[in-house]
Design goal:
Blueprint: E1 2-3, E2 9-10, H1 41-44, H2 53-69, H3 79-88, H4 94-97, H5 103-112, H6 124-136, H7 147-157, H8 159-182, H9 186-196, E3 201-202, E4 214-217, E5 220-226, E6 229-243, E7 251-261, E8 271-282, E9 285-295, H10 301-312, E10 325-335, E11 341-353, E12 364-370, E13 374-379, E14 382-388, H11 389-406, E15 424-443
Length: about 450
Amino acid sequence: ILLDEHGTAKIGDFGLARLMDIDSELTCTEMVLGTPAYMSPEQAHGNNAEVGPHSDIWALGAILYECLVGRPPFKGKSRAETLQLVRTAEPDSLVAQRSEIPPELEAICLHCLQKDPKQRYGSAAELADDLEAWLAGRPTRVHPPTWPRRLLRTVRRHSGTALAGFTALALLVLTGIGLFVSDPNRPLRQIESELKLGQLISLLNEQHWPLWSKEVLGKSLEQRSVDGAFECTTNSKYMLELLPKPPKEGYRFRASIRQLSHDEHEVSVGVGLYVGRIDFSLEGRPAHYSLRLMFNELVDEGQKLREQLAAAQPGFVPPKEPPMNRVKFEGVFSRDPPQDWQRKVSLFSKNLFHPSTPKSRVWRKLELVVTPQEVRASFNGTAVGSMSAQHISKYTEGAWKDALKANPHLGQMLCPGRLDSAGGLGLVILGGTAQFKDIKIEPLLPE
């Protein structure tokens, strides 16, 4: 850097100086000319035909860089190494070396050191204008880089290390995403978290599919989303759990159900909801007890009873009355496979509806309100009944004793059946096809 008689700074490099308006043969086209630490990338590549005013902008940026941090932007152990850094590397952050350097001033300096000449200042005047604007506290032409640009600059500056690091990071992120997506219990944790906040939760997603589910009795033949509902088909007694641990303080569980068909080989026919499922072991095999609210749309139970009476009593003339089916609340012991063993105890029931015709299957609304003290059931908005935890235990123990008498090989096992408000809940199909929608659970607020 030279000062003229007027004190104006001049940049000179006697190893590079030549007349710009004379076609001198003293300089070969591909000869690398200049001091490496202040040479622009086009000079370091030997592209002397591309050297011009934008190369001086680079040199000015290199000088400003050294003035700010005490070293040039690129300095290798040899001339060749310095040239390689100029051609391929990104300068280290100024702020990282001296935190007191204003980000705006760093942006001005690094703008001069862009690898592409077209990305630098167009002239020294533009550079001077930005420096004067910064000194005066006015907005500058260039601005501090955003974090993506800083990230890209870091990658370029440490290409080898960054490539390995970012490859490892990418693998880690992809693995995390894979675990996040493939974790089957993630929706379950989300449901439990929202319930703790007292929120009403839909147990079906926007595609009308269970957020979380597990088959706890029997196997389905088909599950699908159709007509805005979740449809399930099975050829045996079937239970699909939707929530294994509901709020023990109490909750309201409801759904709309449409029974479409039934398995003619099943003695019991019906669909519904279950709550309070308890796991236990029976003869070394998994079994469970649950409380179910069930209805049957497809078989006229009244007509079936009249036919049985007529067969048992010759000459019996059944009264002519419209068919009426019962909604039942039962305690049920089950063991998988479902054909293996099952015991039921009727807790309460009510004649509430006339079965629909095969061509006009209707939706039925079921609701169970469960607390540690009792269970209340309703069907299409009408109360079916309620029962205290004490009475549930009493009637269930009676049915269990009868089951032990009929099956002495079971031993004297204590009755596992009772009301457990924190037991699992879900859907029941006793063979056939049913559709479910508007399946929701709402925690009960403490009084």
